Amino acid sequence: MADLTTQFLELPLKNPLMNASGVWCSVASQLEALAESAAGAMVSKSCTLQPRDGNPEPRYRVINGERTFGSINSMGLPNEGFAYYLRYAQRHDYEQKPLFMSISGLTLDDNLTMVDSLKDAVIPALLEVNLSCPNVPGKSQIGYDFDAMDTLLAEVSSGYQRPFGVKLPPYFDMAHFDEAAEILNRYPLVAFVTCINSIGNALVIDIDSETTLIKPKDGFGGLGGDYVLPTALANVNAFYRRCPEKTIIGCGGVKSGTEAFLHLLAGATLVQIGTSLYEEGPGIFPRVLDELAAIMDDKGYKTIADFRGKLKTIA
Ligand SMILES: O=C1NC(=O)NC(C(=O)O)N1
């Protein structure tokens, strides 16, 4: 039987699966359900310094044809505010599983204020700085502004003085992979990179009503699910190749053991589940783990180390 245990920054984990930030992690009851679930780790909703209502509804929709192809969302960072998630992080049982805390400050100062408070809290929560929310009207994604990303990483590194990670938007150009990786590699405290956030500003239209599916931003929102898997795998592998000192967390298009296996093969150490977790709930974790173990058994892999990052290319 395949061994699904793994490590993340020397932390032992029961398995490589976790939620994607924003899904099943906005309030304490959801966080407690994740803590009790079969997930190997978990992350809280990207928070802002103050609580936010987020964008008007409808702001999340699955995209269905003869089956569900994915999701579109423009939540707009609805969250209970940093202090709420810090309080949860202070009572989390870290022996049960690692907890990541995601922050997405509306300004550099807000990010630095949250980073300082998290540092002063002296808890083993892992910091994931979200550089890629596409849904706050009027705010562009820091991950697409390389100067702003450089400045933020410099400021967080000097303020936090401990290993942390970043949640990146998808990139679609080799020069952008190169430039983003070159910036990340200047910051040794950036210990992990989570690829990808949703593919921003897609537009899904209902043909019967001739109307957008979601309300905010004239229907423009972040795409998740099957649609984003090839882009997610490309970003995982691009940063795996370019940032050998850093750990990659894969996110995007995971709905079964197959996609989890592909993310690991492409170089991910952990694998996050978003859209499918939103639709299926935390019961997805044991299902995907069983499917992953079956694939490993079929292929004769005993541990994740036997195949992780060993994607073959055609000579
Ligand atoms: O970073 C984010 N990515 C998304 O796709 N949606 C959420 C949000 O809108 O809050 N944030």
UniProtKB/TrEMBL annotation:
Dihydroorotate dehydrogenase catalytic domain ranges (all copies): 4-296
A single GO molecular function term of this UniProt record: dihydroorotate dehydrogenase (fumarate) activity
UniProt-listed Gene3D superfamilies: Aldolase class I (3.20.20.70)
GO cellular-component term (any): cytoplasm
EC identifiers of the protein: 1.3.98.1
Record-linked CDD domains: DHOD_1A_like (cd04741)
Pathway in which this enzyme or protein is active: Pyrimidine metabolism; UMP biosynthesis via de novo pathway
Key words, A-Z: Cytoplasm, Flavoprotein, FMN, Oxidoreductase, Pyrimidine biosynthesis
Domain of life: Bacteria
Gene Ontology BP, a term: 'de novo' UMP biosynthetic process
Cofactor(s) listed: FMN
Subunit structure: Homodimer.
Assigned protein family: Belongs to the dihydroorotate dehydrogenase family. Type 1 subfamily.
UniProt cross-references to NCBIfam families, sorted A to Z: PRK02506.1
Stated name of the protein: dihydroorotate oxidase (fumarate)
Source organism of this protein record: Chitinibacter fontanus
